Amino acid sequence: EVTETDVPEDPAEPTGTDIPEEPTTRTLSFVGDATVFATQTAIDLLSFCNTVVPEGYAYSFAKYGFEVLAQNHFDKAAGDTSHTSAYTLGHGTVTVAGEERDAYLLAVRYTHEGEWASNFDIQPSRNYENVYAENFYLTAMDVWDGVKDLIDTSNDPVIIVTGHSRGAATANLLGLLMNRAAIVSTSDLYVYTFATPRTLKPATVTDCDCPNV
Q1: How confident is the model over 48-87, as pLDDT tens digits?
Q2: pTM
């Protein structure tokens, strides 16, 4: 028989003093130039890769002190098979080896709805000698065209590009395009990607050595 004294009391509700306050904003930090991998930076950037809605990106960007400058293709119709991806560009500051730097953050969304059609249309030109996964290359060019005029290099910024899956493939090739354009030095362009599909045939591309990706 269970008596009243045998029944454990419900745990007390946590009070305000029991719950640690989360800082209003955090700071993205890099241990060195873009050729140096930083585990904590990767973990932080992964938090920008787990949402599909623009409000989710706006929240993540604000948490790290970034002002959103542009959000495109989030209203893409389910039947739209164009080679585009939703992305968010923001402006803020980061620390690099302890020094505060002006920064731009670009996060490319993973596959959502109609973007699956683009994933499987790997070579829309049907030129199978092409060294790139053409679907992702076209998507990267679309993103690059949409953001390049919004990035002001007068304050010597660092640029961070990140994405998961489809967003990762696009981000990898964005790194290649940005390295070619030399918008900033290779050491100031950080590209962190997660679960990345193959994007090119490296043995056939002479300028794909991107140590900052």
Answers
A1: 998 999 999 999 999 999 999 999 999 988 788 899 999 9
A2: 0.85
C-beta separation of 191 from 174 below 8 A: yes
Which tens digits make up the pLDDT trace of 88-125? Answer: 999 999 999 999 999 999 999 999 888 888 889 888 88
In terms of Cα–Cα distance, which of 203, 40, 177 is closest to 213?
A: 177
The C-alpha atoms of residue 167 and residue 188 are separated, in whole angstroms, by: 21
CA distances (Å), origin 192, targets 21, 80, 82, 172, 175: 29, 28, 25, 8, 10
